[in-house]
Amino acid sequence: MLFFRKLTPAPRWLILLGTLGFTQVLAADSAAPAPAKALKLDEQERKWMAEHPRVIVASLEYPRYLFKDEHGRWIGLNKDVLDRIGAMTGLQFVHVEAFSTDQMLASLESSEADMSTTLAINDERKAFLDFSHAYGGAGWVFVGRAEAPKVQSLEDLAKRVLVLPARHALEASIRHEYPTIELRTVKTYAEARALVESGEAYATIDNEIGAQLFPSGQLQLGHILEGRWDPEHLAVRKGQPHLLSILNKALEAFPPAELRAIRRKWLNGVVTTAEPTVWQRVTQWSCRGVFVVSVFAVLFLLCNRRLASVVRQRLETEQRLGDQLAFQQALMDATPDPMFVRDLQGRLILCNRSFEESLSTRFDRIQGRQLIELEILPKETAELLHTEFMAQLGSRSTRFCRRQLMFNNGLRDIYQWTVPFYGADGQLRGLLGGWTDLGQRIRQA
């Protein structure tokens, strides 16, 4: 209080208004979610649940919506929604992994699965699937090469190659409405992006949320497809009206505040929320603006004595990180077999000294480049390995094999290994690999 009395009237008002703004912002952001409405299920629906307590969900990994963490557990926005519905209904959702859209649709057509969470609506799918109420959505966006002009519409792709995963939600309509587009299909979005990067295709189309999650590299986002929207539904195999009805009732009873919280948890920074009214924007920004100004005023008055400590701690942290990186590099260099680390586009991030010596090159010459951009291996070998790396990143599988590969100095008998690696957030970061020259081991023995 003594400090407050010594302040001039202007800082006093800033502090008071800042406190008011802070409490309003805090109240808006931390409002408790409304309780879920009680589900009113009829007798037939309750009987169906008793006979079918487990629901098989055909699940294809799609970043932020549904994917596996480093422990192989399913997580994501759709997983949280299903968990909440399970808590409301007592249903148990069992995820069965699919590795492509085509495989996921086939499992639903053959009745191997009951439902899916990542399928968009089109006429082909409506023939054997029913769709629940929508609980969100996003647009479709073009993805093209970075050095090419941004794709603005489907008309820009006339007489050009557009690559899509097989049985994509837009495939049939594009073939019908834009016959001049040369449409190619692959298994996964990862393969589609790889073809665009290599120049074999001009563009692909992805959900705008998924497209923003991948490093740009040689790709760039184009415009959003006008008039095309990708609502978020739960797709249910036909012949299960009770399951569809239960899911719809659960979505209707889902507390809006809780659904917004789940979307913020997984999509924060990727999508925008519903457009607020003018008065809401003015009130929100006024409160936050006053709060920010007040914080800066208080910080200025108190002279922030922690600045020197923060700088010192940062320097110490940087020193520790530098030591750790130096240790990691020394450890890799001490390994007699060649080792490398590549990113999601197959570009070299790190390698050891044995890798440089084996390929007669230096790291500073090949850093940040793909095998197909270099001449350290025969062209056929480089293309083969790059294709395998991109396919492995798409499937997130490991590879250990004995094989013969042609190097610049001749054919070698090697034992090759490559494994995907993940960040602390569970996101795929790239590929770690290496090989052992079996012929050299035999000579040394």
Structural features, described:
With 445 residues, the protein is an alpha+beta fold. The protein folds into three domains: 43-136 and 232-254, D-Maltodextrin-Binding Protein, domain 2; 138-229, D-Maltodextrin-Binding Protein, domain 2; 335-444, PAS domain (Beta-Lactamase, 2-Layer Sandwich). 44% of the residues lie in helices and 23% in strands. Helix 3 crosses helix 10 and helix 8 (189-198) packs antiparallel against helix 16. The protein is globular, with a radius of gyration of 27 Å. The termini are far apart. Mean pLDDT is 83; it is low at 25-34 and 271-276.
Observed structural traits:
BvgS-like_periplasmic2; signal; alpha+beta; Two-component system, NarL family, sensor histidine kinase EvgS; D-Maltodextrin-Binding Protein, domain 2; Solute-binding_3/MltF_N; PAS-like_dom_sf; 44% helix; 5-stranded mixed sheet; 3 domains; Beta-Lactamase
CATH class of the largest domain: Alpha Beta
The coarse silhouette is globular
Gyration radius, in Å: 27 Å
Physical arrangement of strands within the biggest beta sheet: 4-1-5-12-6
Class by helix and strand content? alpha+beta
Can you tell me the CATH architecture of the largest domain? 3-Layer(aba) Sandwich
Distance between the termini: 82 Å
Number of helical regions: 17
At the fold tier of CATH, the topology name of the largest domain is D-Maltodextrin-Binding Protein, domain 2
Total tally of structural domains: 3
SS elements, strand count: 17
CATH superfamily of the largest domain: Periplasmic binding protein-like II
Low-confidence runs: 25-34, 271-276
- In round numbers, the mean pLDDT is 83
Overall helicity: 40-55%
